[in-house]
Fold each of these.
Amino acid sequence: MLTKKRSLSGDRCFSPEPIQRQIAHQFFDSISALPLVCPHGHVDPALLANPAARFGSPTELFIIPDHYIFRMLYSRGIPLQALGIPTSDGSLIETDHRKIWQLFAEHFYLFRGTPSGLWLKDELYNVFGVDEPLNSRNAGDIYDYLEEQLTLPEFSPRALFKRFNIEVLCTTDAASDTLEHHQSLHQEGFTHIRPTFRPDAVVNLDTPGWRENLAKLESTVDWEISTYATFVQALEERRAFFKKMGATAIDQSAATPYTTHLSDQEAEAIFARALVGKLNPGDAQHFTGHMFVEMARMSVEDGLVMQMHCGITRNHNPAVFEQFGSDKGADIPLQIEWTENLRPLLEVYGNNRNFHLILFGLDESTYSRELAPLAGHYPAILLGPPWWFHDSVNGMERYFNQVMETAGLYNTAGFNDDTRAFVSIPARHTVWRRIACNWLAGLVTRGLVEEEEGYEMARALAYDLARVAYKLD
Amino acid sequence: MLTKKRSLSGDRCFSPEPIQRQIAHQFFDSISALPLVCPHGHVDPALLANPAARFGSPTELFIIPDHYIFRMLYSRGIPLQALGIPTSDGSLIETDHRKIWQLFAEHFYLFRGTPSGLWLKDELYNVFGVDEPLNSRNAGDIYDYLEEQLTLPEFSPRALFKRFNIEVLCTTDAASDTLEHHQSLHQEGFTHIRPTFRPDAVVNLDTPGWRENLAKLESTVDWEISTYATFVQALEERRAFFKKMGATAIDQSAATPYTTHLSDQEAEAIFARALVGKLNPGDAQHFTGHMFVEMARMSVEDGLVMQMHCGITRNHNPAVFEQFGSDKGADIPLQIEWTENLRPLLEVYGNNRNFHLILFGLDESTYSRELAPLAGHYPAILLGPPWWFHDSVNGMERYFNQVMETAGLYNTAGFNDDTRAFVSIPARHTVWRRIACNWLAGLVTRGLVEEEEGYEMARALAYDLARVAYKLD
Amino acid sequence: MLTKKRSLSGDRCFSPEPIQRQIAHQFFDSISALPLVCPHGHVDPALLANPAARFGSPTELFIIPDHYIFRMLYSRGIPLQALGIPTSDGSLIETDHRKIWQLFAEHFYLFRGTPSGLWLKDELYNVFGVDEPLNSRNAGDIYDYLEEQLTLPEFSPRALFKRFNIEVLCTTDAASDTLEHHQSLHQEGFTHIRPTFRPDAVVNLDTPGWRENLAKLESTVDWEISTYATFVQALEERRAFFKKMGATAIDQSAATPYTTHLSDQEAEAIFARALVGKLNPGDAQHFTGHMFVEMARMSVEDGLVMQMHCGITRNHNPAVFEQFGSDKGADIPLQIEWTENLRPLLEVYGNNRNFHLILFGLDESTYSRELAPLAGHYPAILLGPPWWFHDSVNGMERYFNQVMETAGLYNTAGFNDDTRAFVSIPARHTVWRRIACNWLAGLVTRGLVEEEEGYEMARALAYDLARVAYKLD
């Protein structure tokens, strides 16, 4: 009944129930050729700005930069050094990329049933044409094959960008970023690669290296930021520059979505304490909460869409942080609260129809309890797609199940891949599109929406909602 | 495979899996003729007390009073004024109901996949015979048709009450209510329309207008309520009157299910501070928590079933509250805690077998963690059906999935529609009954309950459990 | 379509979808003969140490010792006395076991759709050959039949242990336990019955009877425990003895997974206050939090696997506690937090690959938010199976759905039955195995894992993971 063929199933992600599966196919067929809209992610613009850029070895492409991958291997006892992850102190790591790949292949079974496993299979098959499951025996051959492919012009980032049919790709960039890569891309006519303003490094006063981050911002704006007022002025100037360079959105992140209004005096006082390195307890949280409101004010003024990503403890594992730095798979979500925390911001800006506030969280218990009711009432609020750990088959199904009845489809923001792994972009969108079509097919087979409506909703989920939410039209 | 016919599917809500669907049909057929038991809701008794009452225009029936509907339209940027929602200050609103209906129809796609959309389709089709999906093109014709129907005697509230096969309908009434409509209904023999005692407006000391609410209560009991002792006496007298008028239940609501025992002196002191408008921080919460225990005491004494509805922040959006008042779709749920909060109440009354305490919450993370284990132990506790946002296809399925294994079916309280939208009552019960039958069919097809048991459980969910829980036998 | 045959369905727990069901059968057939691995539970070793031990009457076997059963009956108003549950004060209870059984049978419908109901049907059918659903009419006959069977040698605990194909059974034993039954079992060669070190009674300073528990520990180690230092020494000595008697694991439990480091002076001071019965507020919690870290240290040193069971309020109902004692179905789960609470422990021991820390909780909202991300990063952490209330069809499906994509299958610890109801062991493992196979069949039919992988994953879930997690190889 099941064939032994090991290539990627054309039915993947769809329900086994024949009628639902057939309708899911119909919906998917109707939208699978639509271009990819990528309004939030972490691709390095340098990859695309330089026509000669290449991805490097298979290990450099698939393992070393991807904390989704190496955290799983680490959790089963494989040292990060053995995977070639660079150390902060320059201590020795494995440099034989073929050997790292072999180790990865031997442990590829760890990714069974995970989204990373699904994306990797899709990438190997659909991007590189590897129609064999990776294992310890064929690891070397597949490495050699991939290594060769990666040197070819058709596997350059630019060639893949075209092949992937990406209509727009937004990167995420520090407030101090000069956007030189975006400038050169724009000069070449790549205006569909857009920056996103991310001020966390200077707004969150307890960020490691805050003083240096501020110095970079000073250097970029070319004036001294010695007061809260000049700090705000610098942010406003940078936002204007980002907007000029094509940005339609900003992104702000904190452990909690706490928002508050500080008086100018209070904000100045905290900022002054930060400058001398003498923050009081609570200062950083109050300041971030205040800056959420300030960023909302600026968004109302300049029209940039505002994203909030909340609910993660960064660098939970001090040993890993000290040896390897940030973004090493050691970020762990927290319980969070939106209803009371967002109130100060919403009471000022929540009723503004032109203000788009897109919310992302990792605490799924808030989907049906807080986020969907908030989105189903406030004109400003849209819900972002399932984020990070929840960007998965089950994560998406929980999201559709828990969000849509109360928020309504049209208060959501479509999909974004949120990835720094450029080559995984089509695989991630495909999972979203398939799961969305399967969900809609379920609604149709259960008599809850009409088939014609399903086609429109499928298109919205795959394409339209993201464009509208991020003002990309 | 799917027809283009746009009428309501007879399979709606059922699984597409053929065997499960067939069994779901069998169960549903066996219970669909049972009368509707409506033990908790917000229908205005005046509608039924006056034989000449009519629903007004289609817009007055479907849109203006229904915050489920207009909150969704508001969330997508349609001003409440444009929907004819009355303003507190009497400022201008749209008064052309046909135009409002047109606007609604143009945005009817917003309700795709929502419970409101499902109910509306059911009401239009099954109550009014509109067998065409509402859209911008046919909006005017459908409006004219509905408008005409609504003037006919067979679409009077009383005629529909009979047609809907409602066995008992409980309204929700303020402690100060004279129940004049219930009195006249009873004199006519409509004893199956029963009041429910809801003392929130005088018990929650921080309710806007508390002093005026208390004055109304004073006026109703016709004595001065100048102390906590006389306040309690007034509540007891009113409960006795409600019971005489057919009430079998009370309903009490607060943001949190916090319960506590205050001494008489403490209660008197807080009440005295409330009377002079000088509450201390925490006073209102302690007093409400204490009154939960007091109401439980009275229920143990007078036998009235006690309902608790907890977990919502009322009037989250001050701009909407100031301009339009309460119940305008701006109530947002909160995380809550039952295990520790209910303890003071339960240690006194939780083991009483004749005391029925029916719990309702909006924090679904408490279903499997707190509510089901509490109901599966304490003789007094029953769990109410999925409430408000969760009165939906997925909300019910989450409830069955997360509650039943631990609480057991017979510690639940069946369904209640909780609606002020009288015409939506059958549609709401139908969704519950269909989802219940589909859930039971799933248990049968998975070999977890026998088919014969399924029939009994279907009847219990549709009819028996509500009657037993609310002492309606 | 459905037969009227009332025996246990061979398809039970499987999806009705034909292809998924068929693959689930294939997987289940491939693993159903594997021996049972029972690494955590509460079976009394005396049952097995004495060859002459018998289970007593059907009521003594199925009802009196099983709080899963009598809590449900109690919740519907049946007094615990009427079920023969012994009272602390020796006040009168029902002693006619046949009459209790009759009462139980009359209320057997309360267990519809519950895991207890499913286990009971399985036990009656598969262990005792009762192929008729229990009801009020056949209750007496079934009682008589069971009573007779239970006197037969083939229904002795030892005979059933063999028949059940149990490869290893770990009991749970107090720190002060002399393990005399384990000693005699070992002398007979029953080395596959292993103790587990559970120090809660002496570690949690607010345990009722703590001083007496400590006295028992003193008596066992045969020296005075007058200081924190000697207390730790006693625990270390006992762990060594347990290990010698075959233990591979310890188990520690608290309401919250709060962990902290106390200095020796702080720990000594709290311990001294406990000895004189004058604990300060917070002392017990800090001490337990510190002892979690201490137990982790010892586990790193002696290699014993560390289990943490967190998130339950014990003895929530004081009336039941006073009259009947602990473990009477009145334990209610609480919301808990892992991410911040475990940090002090993890920053010292979380990166140790040889340290196995198996986590169990009852707050399912932490599955996808905290537990899976923690397990998917820290080498030490493994996730235990769904615990207690969640050891059920839906509980397991929620676990698979919410844990596996992020944690990965190989960061989980397989199944354990956690039961004191010895006869229910095969039924519990069967539900796990069936649900696991059905979940895997779903992954295969949805194209997410290959069929070959499914066989390996099924075996891992049924057998391998538990052996590896508990170091039973």
Note: The two ends of chain A are 47 Å apart (CA to CA).
Amino acid sequence: MSATRSGPGDGGALIELDEATCWRLLASRPVGRLAWCQAAGPVLVPVNHTVEDRTVVVRTAPWASMVAQVDDSPVAYQVDDFDQVTREGWSVLVRGTAEVGYDASGGPEPWPAGSHAATVRIRPVEVTGRRVAPR
Amino acid sequence: MSATRSGPGDGGALIELDEATCWRLLASRPVGRLAWCQAAGPVLVPVNHTVEDRTVVVRTAPWASMVAQVDDSPVAYQVDDFDQVTREGWSVLVRGTAEVGYDASGGPEPWPAGSHAATVRIRPVEVTGRRVAPR
């Protein structure tokens, strides 16, 4: 997608972000959304994450339905930030394959209570981002 | 999922939200993420929305690839809000079917520049939400 400049009063321009900027923005926020596909359509779950060696790592309970469903499957991880007043913002989307592990190391400290003995590591295939520039 | 109470120091409780609360929270925020499934896995796009008669409505360009891909297909729409400091927050997920229209009425005023002559209306099949309560 090429950047398109807008005229006055018709909203901001959408500008593509380079991959280095995407990784920097991903690491700048603690929370994103992990998405995967079921027969009935997509599911999105908000989780907190860390960025480790150009992978996104989240932790969850080993018995979470997510774990069984995402392992070795295509997933997406999305982070964004928007300002309601200025209508500026950005979003980053990591598309790749999830790899479930049960090592105690790696990943973020989970926010909700309960076991988080499983790690879901997202190995990226494509990393893209966009920014809505001010009018 | 039933609500689980946590002990001290191990994170907050995850509490399920009723559907009325989910709709109120959906209407309280201007921006969410529309997700759909491609052969290569899920895609998430942040968009702004309105809630109209228990449907979620977004606007986009009629030539956007999203329009061709989501019409009459299973999609999900997700809205959340988290506080990095207190680690409290909530999320709402609408799963349903997208219906594309080309009427000028309905939906939000789009943030980015360009044509937004298409509406994507999400007819819900399932509306769920969760809250992470303070520790």
Note: Residues 43 and 74 of chain B are 12 Å apart (CA to CA).
